[in-house]
Design brief:
Number of domains: 4
Oligomer: single chain
Number of strands: 0
Helix content: over 70%
Radius of gyration: 29 Å
Largest sheet: none
Strand content: under 5%
Distance between the termini: 58 Å
Length: 315
Amino acid sequence: METTTDMTTDDQAATELRNLIERTLAGARVPRGTRTQLSTTLERAMRENLSLVRRYVRALAYDGRAAEMMERYAEGQTLDEIGEHFEVTRERVRQILTSTFGDYRSVVPQDVRHEHSLRRLAERTAKWDEAHGAQILDLFSEGRSDAQIAEGLGIPRTKVADFRSRKGLRHTRGVDWTDDDILDALSRCSKEIAQGLTISRYSEWRESIGLDKAPSYLTVLIRYETFEQACAEGNVPYVGRSNAERRSDYITPEVAREYLSEFLDWTIANNKKATSGTFAEYREDHSGVPSMAVMSRRLGGFRSALDDLISQRAG
């Protein structure tokens, strides 16, 4: 009879675990369709990490749901999707996975989580476009501005602008503003707010009087190249940054996209959402990163450029 005196501790543990797996699967509350997949996963885990397989076995012995939840999570399903399948809350799913597997997120490799994050973001974007895209296109074709579309549909204005960017839609001027109209608007704005002008102050004033009552700052830039030059033409005090100051932080669109790509990698590595808030946090830890305003100008919109980058990676 062959003895096991020469077997290593891991070999003995593997043999015991294999037998335990077979006994547990035979009596566990696991759907028949997932048993083969579970068995394969457990065998692979056993070869790679005995501690991981012990957790799987405990999950099966305690409650077959935990093992299947872990399988679904590893396949890229969100806690919400898993909870919907088992008719429990996402928090209950998190509790079961945490109590059974500990740091369950570390079980899934980072590159797999990265891929899942990109896929889910692309899916959410496609779902949002499907829900609102047709209405936005109808209102856009009627000549409505982003603000009017957003107000009419009850959605954020930035979402409308991002959708237009993804679809390559550009607004045309509804009013043919003359040079006198533009300079008069700048003069009225300066007098009414009793301050020197900046683009931000002018935009806020224009919104307060009605967007169709004065030309946008983009119209001013198209006509006069810079807002500062337009103010000088109209003898209006300008208190924004000088052209020299603006040139000091100039970067090309290509460099801006590189910064954006590095920021996206950072959010995924740190399990954070890619938002303007997390970009500010990212800048605090990474010196030399351009401001949100600079990135937005170079990329033609920060959010839309980020969504395009995520879609490209997901594809």
